[in-house]
Design brief:
Elements lengths: L4 E4 L4 H9 L3 E2 L16 H12 L12 E2 L4 E2 L7 H7 L5 H10 L2 H10 L7 E3 L16 E2 L6 H4 L1 H7 L3 H4 L11 E3 L3 H10 L16 H8 L29 H17 L11 H21 L7 H17 L11 E6 L17 E5 L14 E3 L5 H9 L8 E5 L12 E12 L2 E13 L11 H4 L3 H4 L17 E3 H10 L5 H21 L11 E9 L5 E8 L8 H23 L8 E6 L1
């Protein structure tokens, strides 16, 4: 009568324990729905061991069969668990049966599950949306997923739909989401070509941005300091020797191209005729050769004071038009990702986590794909072809997105990190968003360097970093389990003179990014009043502490990989139930660390 019957699919001992403590009865289902699978027994201890084992991964899904929401069992016809049948037909006398229940606390739960086998579960928690046929759900059944969330939980969906954000909100996605292009779309592929200077590099500049401003930063000493930077030190390996100085006309070329690009951004070039690319090809090739020498070989430039001042003034004007100028860097590194995947999944040709780097660097082209999955190019013209090489043979070019890599991240003791930030959506109409006040950091195992593009230095996923040993001479204050809480980050920021950054810049920026991503996809998600969903957003911070959204994960892992995640994963599950169950009966009850940040 109280409708306190629940079903849990997957290794979620915390959810199961919290619901039982509230007086709910579990309706178990047998097996995993696979041929030859063994029935499920002793959920508490076995699932905890499974979850501890799974803690080495990042948001991994379990391959289980879909549930019939009316029956609460696997749709493939799985039978009740063997443990339940043994209890019903036990030859033991009642006294010995009670002793067995004391020794095996799951025994009584198995029996109760059998007693409610014909009842409808009113709370369903699964590890993936496809595990439940939402068309069969009753209105009063709670389930922890929405349908069609790929509009913002896949890289391609996020890339596509964030461009529509200005139609829904007065926000610019370029302020929190690194530039991204879907290679399947011809117009975006052309925009990517334009950004790299491939097609008419001086005449047909892409309105989405061109790496020439970063070229200017690299080629003119002292100009890069005009972009705001944090005082956190970034130890970086030095490039090769300075080499012979280059003629100053290279800077004049950079100023010319930047000025043209600035006019394009300001729509001041409508009546102007673009310069002929045929007349400029030779100059552009000479400019690029000089650029590579400055950035990668350490060549110097002899400039006058007037030229330096002109560069500073132009860069300041560009910074007002290009929100991402502060994180650009000068190596022009891009990362190729599988567009249809979320949570860092997907693998192609030996790449780690499905990601590949595209770096316009070096003096020779290396087209092979090493075990790390890194692909380097010496000329901008090679990038699109390399994208096709990366995608074959396991994926077509159209299934990948290419995104600007944050070259100037905030580092901690010279090491890159990202942050996992949870948020909860309890309604899409009106959109209702809860932001979790606690989060955790994931560190790389090797020091950051743009001269070495290996995953150990650049990809923070636990599933990737577990394959590498910690660097020798690693700073003693970096955690051996490569995880920090957000409280430890705040303490570090205070030590380096950035005590107000967390509450004044980082958290507000993450909240704005989350709401912006959700609003851009709101009309595409299949919303249902009886559903809710917990998501995990991954952010990286720039040197100015500005957060940059990398991706949003459905079904974020609840498997602990460290002492920090063991505590936080348990607390976010506890507080999720407070919001979605307890607040329904008592709106004034505590929501734990969840904060309501948006409700239409």
């Amino acid at each position: 009568q109280e409708k306190k019957i629940f079903t849990v699919q997957g290794p979620y001992p915390i959810i199961r324990s919290l619901l039982r403590a509230r007086g709910w009865v579990e309706k178990k289902f047998g097996g995993a729905g696979k041929a030859g699978s063994q029935p499920e027994r002793h959920h508490g201890s076995q699932e905890m061991r499974q979850q501890e084992k799974a803690g080495d991964g990042d948001d991994a899904e379990q391959g289980e069969a879909a549930l019939d929401p009316q029956l609460g069992s696997a749709c493939c016809g799985a039978q009740p668990s063997q443990g339940t049948l043994e209890l019903l037909h036990s030859p033991l006398p009642p006294e010995e049966e009670e002793e067995r229940w004391d020794e095996d606390p799951e025994a009584i739960h198995n029996l109760m599950s059998r007693l409610v086998r014909d009842q409808v579960p009113y709370f369903i928690w699964t590890n993936r949306c496809s595990a439940v046929d939402c068309r069969l759900l009753q209105q009063d059944q709670l389930v922890n997923h929405y349908a069609r969330v790929g509009a913002f939980t896949t890289k391609e969906g996020l890339c596509q739909n964030l461009r529509n954000l200005p139609w829904f909100d007065q926000a610019n996605p370029d302020t929190f989401f690194p530039r991204c292009y879907r290679l399947r779309a011809a117009d975006e592929r052309q925009a990517f070509i334009g950004e790299l200077g491939l097609s008419r590099p001086l005449g047909m500049l892409s309105p989405l941005g061109l790496p020439v401003p970063t070229v200017l930063c690299a080629m003119v000493p002292g100009v890069a300091q005009q972009v705001p930077r944090s005082p956190v030190p970034h130890p970086m390996p030095s490039p090769a020797g300075p080499g012979p100085p280059l003629p100053p006309h290279l800077v004049e070329k950079a100023l010319q191209v930047c000025g043209q690009h600035l006019s394009t951004l300001g729509h001041q070039d409508i009546d102007g005729d673009p310069p002929s690319p045929h007349a400029l090809d030779t100059d552009w090739d000479r400019f690029l050769r000089g650029y590579y020498r400055v950035v990668h070989e350490g060549a110097g430039l002899a400039l006058s004071g007037a030229q330096r001042e002109q560069c500073r003034a132009l860069l300041q004007r560009l910074a007002g038009r290009l929100p991402q100028l502060g994180m650009e860097g000068d190596h022009n590194v891009w990362i190729l990702k599988p567009g249809a995947k979320s949570r860092g999944r997907g693998k192609a040709g030996g790449s780690q986590g499905g990601n590949r780097f595209l770096a316009m660097e070096g003096s020779h082209h290396h087209c092979m794909s090493p075990p790390t999955g890194i692909v380097c190019a010496a000329r901008l013209e090679e990038v699109l072809r390399l994208a096709g090489v990366c995608a074959a043979p396991s994926a077509r070019v159209g299934e990948w997105v290419v995104q600007k890599y944050v070259e100037r991240p905030l580092l901690i003791f010279g090491t890159k990190f990202d942050i996992r930030q949870w948020f909860l959506v309890t309604d899409w109409n009106p959109l209702t968003v809860w932001f979790y006040r606690e989060s955790y950091l994931r560190f790389c195992s090797q020091p950051f360097s743009l001269h070495h593009l290996d995953p150990a230095r650049h990809l923070c996923n636990v599933s990737i970093q577990k394959r590498y040993r910690l660097a020798q001479g690693r700073h003693p204050q970096l955690p051996p389990d490569q995880t920090w809480s957000c409280w430890q980050l705040q303490a570090y920021l205070a030590q380096v003179g950035l005590g107000g950054a967390w509450h004044q810049v980082m958290v507000p920026g993450m909240k704005a990014a989350v709401v912006g991503a959700l609003r851009s996809a709101q009309d595409l998600v299949e919303h249902r009043k009886g559903s809710f969903e917990l998501y995990g957003a991954d952010f990286i911070f720039g040197e100015d502490c500005q957060p940059w959204l990398l991706e949003i994960n459905a079904s974020p892992t609840m498997a602990p990989s460290s002492a920090v995640t063991r505590r936080l994963c348990a607390s976010v599950q506890r507080d999720t139930l407070r919001v979605v169950i307890d607040c329904r009966d008592n709106p004034a009850c505590s929501t734990g660390a969840f904060e309501l940040i948006y409700k239409e």
